[in-house]
Structures are given as structure tokens and as C-alpha cells.
Glutathione S-transferase (Salinisphaera japonica YTM-1), 233 residues
Amino acid sequence: MTFRLYYWPTIPGRGEFVRLALEAAGADYVDVGRTQGASAVAEMINRGMHFAPPILENDYESVSHVAHILAWLSYPLDLAPPNERDFRRMEQLQLTVTDFVAEIHDVHHPLGPTVYYEDIVDVAQSGARAFLHDRLPAFLAYFERTLQENPYGSDWLVGDGCTTLDLSLFQVMRGLRYAFPNAMRLMTTPWLNELALRVAQRRRIRSYLDSDRRIAFNNDGIFRHYPELDEQV
């Protein structure tokens, strides 16, 4: 079965969380934005069923929202935990990732996505200071504990194998190191660092990261590097 992913063609953004799952499983998919352009993504949105990308569809249905898409994909792609209880735990943690990503995004868009960063630098610097001192350490410490306290004693967040959640945390860690390199050097995250390394070393992920399918981080996406914000640590 072929999946069709609708997301903007020039940024990793939220679409990258879905791409990583598809790539990790070796799934057959078409990245519509990159093959047909942003207009094809806009056309899909204008049909009215979905508010915003990423949107993933197959021949039978279409689904939007990262956490919802990943829950839908996890079993057919063999990226789900072993039982229903652990699946619910994975969903809970994935929604926490959603909250985390939203707060990361809001560091450079504190007054909303329609207000340009260049017009609110002072406000963004104040928000960055609070985020880097309080919220970033809190989120990272939570996921560190989650890894340490996995009842399976595995190297993964939930269950005894890699899930879509682990792939998402890999992307978050990569993105944070791009956006806030100074702040991240001060964070104590040995378990998350090892998790990110394990994900990067998976055969299909390693191949994907080395390919032109992987879009580099840039200052149009969620994870943006503005030195003046990273200096607020």
C-alpha cells in the first residue's frame, strides 16, 4: 500500500515526525509537497476535511495531526509497543511531545504564527529566557525519567523496542541542538542522547539521514536558530 504525505516542501516541520516513521519502516510513500509542490498541499487543505498538514492518506482514508497519524501508523509499520496498555502510554507521551514542540515553536512566535519574528525580537528574548531556564529542563528531565524507569528495562521509551515515539524524541533532540546549541550543552540528558544515537544508527534511518529526502533544519521551520535567543540561557 502506498501512503501519500502532504506537507510543505521546504521545511522539516511537523511533517518530519511522520517521514521518520515511514522511513524507519521502509514504507512505500509519496511526499506530495516535494514531488508536486506546495500548491498540491494547499489544494488538499482546501478540500475542507483537515485544518493543516501534515496529512497522510492511503487509498481508504486520510488522517491529520502528528500524534493521530503516528498512532494510526504504529501497528501496520511495526512501530508499536507490545500491548494495549503500553500503546496508551505511548499515545500519552506522544501528546506530551506535541506540547513540547508547540512550546519550542512559540519561543520564536510568542504572539502567534502570523506575527513576524523580526517585529517581536524583544518579546521573543524574554520568552526564550523563561523557556530555556524552566520549561526546557522540565520536559527533558521528564523524558529522561521515562527512559530510566521503563519497566521492561529496555533502551526505549515504551515497551521493549523502537516505536514512533522514540523516532519523535530523536527529531526533537536533533532540532533542539540546532536551535539552542548553547542551552543544550548545559542540559544533562545522557539517556536521551543515547536514545538519539540509537535511532540515528538504525539502518533505514541512517540511510535516510544521508539522503536528499531529509530536509535540513532551517529558519522557516519549528526549530529555528536565532543566536540572540540561545544567549538567554
Residues 84-202 form a domain with the Glutathione S-transferase Yfyf (Class Pi); Chain A, domain 2 fold (CATH 1.20.1050.10). The beta strands are 3-6, 29-31, 55-57, 62-64.
